[in-house]
């Protein structure tokens, strides 16, 4: 065979034995202008392959509406890799995990209350088929069997950590084969009995994921697959961060020691991540390992990887290259020219648009007996505003949002009464009395990111059950969906002393374009837009202290920043630095 395949314990490419040295780079976490820079750096490190996930929710944001342009131009990303003589592993949806919103599943699946995810459930599989009918024909010309760089496709992702529905896995396998995906098919799971038993299927290469204990992991894999190459499809060389935690790192010495162990065993390896990038917009995921736990992921996906968030080689990059050079003859390390970093300094916010005064400008009211979830109202990400009236007088009772997803600001007659937060067990409970003339209740709920891993994937957003005052459910709600995809209707005015959620706008001039890092010290929590691009969330609870702003988002001359601040600004300025603050 002249195409990529395996025989016995070795991979072969064009009939020559090959050890796969791969790195994960997610095109959807990097502006397209930097794809080639990151790929060149991967190749200069001594790697011969790249791996990427494919997030379904990015490519089919609304049912039947597909997007493969800009940051979603998967075909161009793979073509670039091929032009650089890199091989490609593609790990397509339906599910990817990746600390990505809903693990890559589209939120509109949850509009169907009866939907079953990641199993042999015909309504779910019908949606998968519709998606594959669009996605896989785009990949077909890029397969190695057709002269392209794609050497392998993954079936699902770490499925043994979730279920054991072999009928479902085989359905996905046949769905790929029937659409002409005639390259290597593989699975990846943790190196544990239950995970391998649940995730492996006949006729598909099994790989394992881990961050340490290589020999033990491969020994376990060989128990189930004795006559095939061994590969770590995810070598966890770093880790991700949740809000309200410390920044996670993986020591370089640990990474190079585990890598050296794998290469001595003649194993193939894929660094997860080689370059992490950024969870732009509202695409960060969250973890929810129990029914009561919820941990949203930060905007940065730096991952303590070989390239940092802005694409610069780290100490880990050079240490890994040195280990690889012991096993592979490498050419001199020729890196692309460094991308300029700019400190644009302080920018003053000059205008403000209070949310409440602008609700009808950027949304349309929806009236319902009870609060509806985002998904039932056709909304994917962002915020949602609910309001109702409680008649009075009434004695003091507890105010309870039943099954809140995820964080709510509660206002009584326009004054902030409290913050209820699913992710913060210490968040205060809320109780109040109602005067004789009643009280207007307004609730602004933020979707902090759908769960991306584990048994609690069905993570509807907004108010998912109801709102009670004491024992009584409240009805007659007016709702505004706030995905914040179009802010053109905002009516800005001069700065005021409003402490309610507001949009703030400022401008600055740029003579030389470069990457920069935005500090919002003195601000509390919200979202930033640069020239209309949703940069992502900030939150003063840390650990992330600055937002990465890629140079291609800027333009020569006048640039605009809009900040949606939830708690009222305490600092009318922001600062652009030339390096990140951690």
Topology readout:
Blueprint: E1 5-7, E2 10-13, E3 16-18, E4 21-25, H1 35-44, E5 49-54, H2 56-59, H3 74-83, E6 87-92, H4 122-139, E7 150-154, H5 166-178, E8 184-189, H6 193-199, E9 205-210, H7 214-224, E10 231-236, H8 252-264, E11 268-275, E12 286-287, E13 295-296, H9 315-325, E14 345-354, H10 355-362, E15 366-368, E16 383-390, E17 394-405, E18 407-412, E19 415-421, E20 430-434, E21 439-446, E22 451-453, E23 462-469, E24 472-473, E25 477-482, E26 493-494, E27 502-510, E28 516-519, E29 525-530, E30 533-539, E31 546-549, E32 557-565, E33 573-577
Helix pairs in contact: 8-9
The first-level CATH class of the largest domain is given as Alpha Beta
* Contiguous runs where pLDDT drops below 50 for at least 5 residues: none
CATH superfamily of the largest domain: Glycosidases
What portion of residues belong to β-strands? 25-35%
CATH fold name of the largest domain, please? TIM Barrel
CATH hierarchy: architecture of the largest domain: Alpha-Beta Barrel
Distance between the termini: 50 Å
The helical percent reads 10-25%
Number of helices, counting only DSSP H or I runs of 4 residues or more: 10
- Sketch the major β-sheet: 9 strands, antiparallel
* Outline: globular
Give Rg in angstroms: 25 Å
| Secondary structure category | alpha+beta
Number of strands: 33
Total count of domains:
3
| Mean pLDDT reading | 96
